[in-house]
């Protein structure tokens, strides 16, 4: 990676952070950052706007939560793998359907498919309906490390995040990633060059869904909860906002966007503006689209380019 | 599943009627989306929020200002259209040259703001609006009981939808509109004020949502979420029908309402997912949509 020094500093900060800030808050940031990075892979690099990405986050959370709760002595890595696998399969099915349409229709198809899953999770016997799955045990990682300790859990979540982040970074900078960007920039041209565009789109979709599922499974362990909030369309909108605010198609944008939104939500929730949270998110959306479509990271990059 | 072999005509027709009413709303909202999409190539995510706003405006008009249902039916769609026009002029037009996904995100943001404001002010428990005096009661038909207000919704929606279809497909104004869809630059060169047509079309399209909101106020519980939940269904309907044709959007809306009603009778567990399942089947069989022209 370029900027090795910067990355090492960030890693150092991440390692020390739980001694300064509340670990559960940091874990929430990391889970949403991974979710937003996974989403950005699809929107920012392949140019596909999915408006139903919450479904992959939610199905990962539900499956992991259900297994951890019902299978005695299941270790968390197996629970997470199962959740991720289900998200990947769902991503394949939904991706296969959604890539039949393009642009705005793609967004509507993914939203409608996600709503289908929402009703499934609402009605299915194992999800606890409106209450969700509560009291999910965190278990002991590999049977060795007790994750009920917040600090252990934090370093586990941090490694999951770094793993996902590096995978995304490698994907974007691989030949596969180049084709992805070519499709985003000019699809007919990519087709004329002989690329099987739909296969690339589907693979990106599955990868993105898988990583979103990983974020969901991990989040279910952190909060020991999987609920309808995770699969609601509002969550799908939230991840779009995180990515847009941070900067679509940049590596660090979604991380910054997710951190900002999660912090904002935490600050607002305890203040007098708590009940205005949706209004404020909506306003941030409007301002982002009207004033700075490059997002925070995009604007910073522009500034750096101009001045140095 | 005994009901499959033992059909109760009263219950069946009752569900069909509810389906037809839902379909009337789907048709009105899908029509508004299709008109706006036709000219601006954008999907208006606020359509659901403005439908919700229409219902709330009718309720607020009655409870705060004493405005009757009939005046609401006239004034609220105009008010909503004005809001739409302002939104088009000051929010949507500045980003007209950008990727269409941005306008989708912009209108999504506006929808969040509207829904958030009403949730803050009225909570999510739901308000009730009385059926107007003139439309109380009902007619006893040989196979079912037909409440007058429900008949009124269906008639109203059919008249507005056919009227709009006629205006777009058969009149000179409609011809301008269709020409604007085909080639706005050329039309501008012929001396027609395209931006004005765009603004008015947007106003008309969202006005339909306002009208649907007023019509819905006496039959549904008025909640801030009523808009977003119906909008997602309407999106699925638009994917099923394709937005290439105005008539297609109307027919698909009504048809999906009826299918939903039938499902409620035969297999109620699937009634809120059946339209999405139809969408999946359409995507597999005819990806462009039933009436769609483009792939």
Structural class of chain A: mainly alpha
Largest beta-sheet characterization of chain A = 2 strands, antiparallel
> How many distinct helices of chain A?
13
Strand count, sense and closure of the main sheet of chain B? Answer: 2 strands, antiparallel
What is the CATH class name of chain B?
Answer: Mainly Alpha
Largest interface: A-B, 38 and 43 residues
State mean pLDDT of chain A (0 to 100 scale). 89
Distance between the termini of chain A: 21 Å
Order of helices and strands of chain A: HHHHHEEEHHHHEHHHH
| Residues in β-strands, percent of chain B | under 5%
CATH topology of chain B: ABC transporter involved in vitamin B12 uptake, BtuC
Q: Write out the strand line-up for the largest beta sheet of chain B, numbering strands in chain order.
A: 1-2
What percent strand of chain A?
under 5%
Number of domains of chain B: 1
| Cα-based radius of gyration of chain B, to the nearest Å | 19 Å
Keywords:
heterodimer; A: 308 residues; mainly alpha; two-stranded antiparallel ribbon; two-stranded antiparallel sheet; 13 helices; 4 strands; 73% helix; globular; B: 295 residues; ABC transporter involved in vitamin B12 uptake, BtuC; 11 helices; 2 strands; 72% helix; 2% strand
